[in-house]
Description:
Largest sheet: 6 strands, mixed
Shape: globular
Number of helices: 9
Strand content: 15-25%
CATH topology of the largest domain: Rossmann fold
Bound molecules: adenosine-5'-triphosphate, magnesium ion
CATH architecture of the largest domain: 3-Layer(aba) Sandwich
Structural class: alpha/beta
Number of strands: 10
Number of domains: 2
Amino acid sequence: MSLLVLDSVTRRFGALQALKGISLSVEEGELRAIIGPNGAGKTTLFNLISGYFPPSQGSISFAGSVITAVSPNALVRRGIIRTFQITQIFLALTVYENLRVAVECAMGLQLRPYIGRATRARVEARVDELIEVTRIGAKVDRIAGELSHGDQRVVEIGIALSRAPRLLLLDEPTAGMGDEETRHMTDLIRRLNRTNGITMLFVEHDMAIVFGIADRITVLDNGALLAEGSAAEIAANPRVQAAYLGDAAGARAA
Ligand SMILES: Nc1ncnc2c1ncn2[C@@H]1O[C@H](COP(=O)(O)OP(=O)(O)OP(=O)(O)O)[C@@H](O)[C@H]1O
Ligand SMILES: [Mg+2]
């Protein structure tokens, strides 16, 4: 059984069809890239999967249940976790505090006036795990707002991981990053998938990253599903090349 299934999903905003009859399946353990030109519907796809908007038509299933009308918060509890195109973290808190607050919320502790010693130890152990997996250890005491954009993105992913995602959606995780930050983020995405086994969808404009790490690639164009396949299949697809990739990206992936 596929972890995520979209069946003929359409989303309209007034007269605009942002997504047109999209059907796709994502398998457990898959690292899937979503690509396509600006305005193709990539973020809208994430908004539908994470419950921010309902589809106008069609259905979405996750882990065998229809989730088309389930709220974002309820989907988080079921394990669908996302990051946004714009970074969302607590800028005034340190990295450690960001992760601690996230873990406390994930454990349902946020309204407790006092957290006992045993529970505190569990929170700290979980925060330490997140620090280790994201490799942000050297910066835990820094104020998040003073970090580089790339490090803030890493903290955001740490926060997302506090919810133990079954499906992690990353919207343009490397946008605006320099080479070194991009490499670090790409390594993190690959590690979360390969080592931690997290099923992931990521929107990405950098074709070197897409072809470098994705198991499969879904191409959207003007709200429609243009193509889907392995990196080699997508690179060789003449419709994709014509609509989006151009010769350079095709040559790089080949
Ligand atoms: N809430 C909304 N209300 C009205 N129109 C919207 C809304 N969200 C998205 N759209 C429109 O839907 C289309 C798809 O937008 P979307 O943000 O999904 O594109 P995208 O593929 O993520 O683009 P980008 O690469 O620029 O992030 C665009 O024409 C956009 O203007
Ligand atoms: Mg977008």
